[in-house]
Write a structure and sequence with these properties.
- With 491 residues, the protein is of the alpha/beta class.
- Helix content is 45%, strand content 15%.
- It has three domains: 149 residues, Beta-Lactamase; 174 residues, P-loop containing nucleotide triphosphate hydrolases (Rossmann fold, 3-Layer(aba) Sandwich); 135 residues, Helicase, Ruva Protein, domain 3.
- The protein is built from 19 helices and 15 strands.
- It has a six-stranded antiparallel beta sheet with strand order 3-2-1-6-5-4, sandwiched between helices. A five-stranded parallel beta sheet has the order 8-9-12-7-13. Strands 10-11 form a two-stranded antiparallel sheet.
- Strand 10 and strand 11 form a beta hairpin.
- The longest helix has 43 residues.
């Protein structure tokens, strides 16, 4: 609660119930070292604007300087009383007493509270008024302390939110995606180009290939990067609830709808909506989804009010949508609406040269997470290269995590690899080094991958080193060193 609202009420009570008029809260500006009227009861805006004092100037300035209250029984007879606001007319004829009490926070005077009192005669003590005002200033001090703490908390929360946003965005930078294969380079090149547009994207690929990673990367490199990225797994939502989940509902529209609820489209307004497993969406919902893609307008379930949204759609599927269209399971017009920019993510068995750098990445990740320093033998790495990985990158990640958690020693051997491989394939292990060359040694592979990333960043940046360094999240000096280290030539 803003303390100024509460204090305004207090000044009104002092005026109406206790005869204390022109209640004024004057605060010290720590930068200018001047006092300005913050709140006033019974003063016009013009009178309030005139109430500016230096420390030590007039009664108000003296109270701030000394930190002690001052009572002026009759302002008409007090030379220090400045009447700067000129709100009292001829003070020599007003018969007014003036009481000024310091407002303190942790012993420091931050301002003053002052009031006018009708002067009766010298025999009437104003000490009781001072006591009451001292209690009020104590409350004022507490209110401003609380408000300052709340403001600090807000700033910390904003700072933390920005930090978390940066942390969330970091893994989705193109420079941080782990690969060395030409196939992934082509995919990321397409993703980079489409990220600069508003086009609808359809990501194709088997489960575990990293479709959501690519979707998030596109979002965080687009002009919508500071807006929401909302992800929906269409296969995980029951057919009876998917419309409500996507488009929201109004209160009472069905049993259990006790309140109005926003759907994913509304939550993603001005951002990106990722529709994963789009091939599993029921036919009844396909009709409504098609309309939203065409018009960017819909109604909540049970509602009649049209809602317009500005949403970028990225869809993904591991199904053959073309076959689904032929079989009448997926609307052809919806398919064409989604298939504006198709990007196919290759399976891990199609890009096995990416396995060593991915292994290195996951080793580092899960070693840090588990406080270990586990390494992998070349023989165990060869075993991973032979395997076809039907679960793709997700399966590889789970495999590495399991090996680190279960490792009895700091070196993973072939027998520690928790996958079943055909005996005939195991006999080909000796051939793996010649097939993958440098990929067999993790250190060499990681250096190769870093070199490739620098080359790609330079290409995207038009070979401007400072711009490429920003893309990679490093300094111009660092990229210059790496260009020299890897012998990279630039046009």
């Amino acid at each position: 609660v803003d303390p100024r609202v509460t204090l305004t009420s207090i000044l009104e009570i002092l005026a109406e119930s206790m005869g204390m008029s022109r209640g004024t809260l004057t605060l010290l500006d720590p930068e200018t070292k001047q006092l300005y009227i913050e709140l006033a009861h019974g003063l016009t805006p013009e009178e309030k604007s005139r109430g500016v004092y230096r420390i030590g100037e007039g009664i108000t300035g003296k109270v701030v300087e000394t930190g002690e209250p001052i009572i002026v029984p009759d302002i008409g007879k007090e030379p220090l009383f400045l009447n700067r606001t000129r709100s009292r007319g001829d003070i020599r004829r007003e018969n007014i007493s003036f009481i000024c009490v310091p407002v303190k926070v942790k012993g420091d005077t931050i301002g003053v509270l002052s009031v006018d009192r009708l002067f009766i005669d010298k025999s009437v003590s104003l000490d009781e008024d001072v006591r009451i005002l001292t209690v009020v200033t104590s409350l004022i001090g507490q209110a401003f302390t609380t408000a300052k703490m709340v403001e600090l908390e807000k700033k910390n929360l904003i700072k933390e939110k920005l930090s978390l946003q940066r942390e969330l965005k970091s893994p989705y930078r193109f420079a941080n995606i782990v690969f060395v294969s030409d196939k992934m380079r082509e995919i990321l090149d397409s993703a980079w180009r489409v990220s600069q547009s508003k086009a609808t994207v359809l990501l194709r690929g088997e489960s575990g290939t990293g479709k959501e990673l690519i979707a998030r990367t596109i979002h965080y490199h687009s002009k919508r990067c500071d807006k929401s990225f909302i992800s929906v797994n269409c296969a995980a939502i029951p057919d009876t609830l998917i419309e409500s989940d996507l488009f929201g509902h109004v209160k009472g529209s069905f049993t259990g709808a006790v309140n109005d609820k926003k759907g994913r489209f509304e939550l993603a307004d001005e951002g990106t909506l990722f529709l994963d497993e789009i091939g599993d969406i029921p036919p009844s919902t396909q009709v409504k989804l098609l309309r939203v893609l065409q018009e960017r307008r819909f109604e909540r379930v049970g509602g009649s009010k049209g809602i317009t949204v500005d949403v970028r759609i990225i869809a993904a599927t591991n199904r053959n949508l073309e076959d689904a269209v032929k079989e009448g399971k997926f609307r052809e017009d919806l398919y064409y609406r989604l298939n504006v920019v198709p990007i196919r993510i290759p399976s891990l068995r199609e890009r096995k040269e990416d396995i060593p750098p991915l292994v290195g990445h996951f080793l580092q990740l899960y070693n840090e997470e588990n406080g270990r320093d586990v390494k992998i033998s070349n023989e165990a790495l060869d075993t991973l290269l032979i395997y076809d990985w039907p679960g793709n990158v997700r399966e590889l990640e789970n495999c590495i995590e399991r090996m680190i958690v279960m490792a009895k020693n700091d070196l993973i051997m072939t027998e520690d690899v928790p996958i079943t491989i055909d005996t005939k394939l195991l006999n080909r292990q000796s051939d793996m080094s010649s097939v993958y060359g440098q990929a067999r040694t993790l250190d060499n592979t990681i250096e190769f991958m870093e070199k490739e990333k620098i080359i790609e960043a330079l290409k995207r940046a038009g070979y401007v080193q400072a711009r490429a360094a920003r893309q990679l999240g490093i300094t111009s000096r660092q990229i210059g060193y790496k260009i020299k280290k890897y012998g990279i030539t630039t046009p």
